[in-house]
Amino acid sequence: MSARNTLIAKIHIAKKDLGLDDDTYRGALEMATGKSSCSKMTDRQLQDTLAHFKTKGFQPKKAGTFKPASKNGDVRLIYALWWDLHHAGKLDCSKSQLRPALQKFVVRMTGIENPEWISGEEAQKVIEALKAMKNRKNK
Question: CB burial class (10 A; 0-12, 13-18, 19+) of residue 16?
Answer without folding.
Answer: exposed
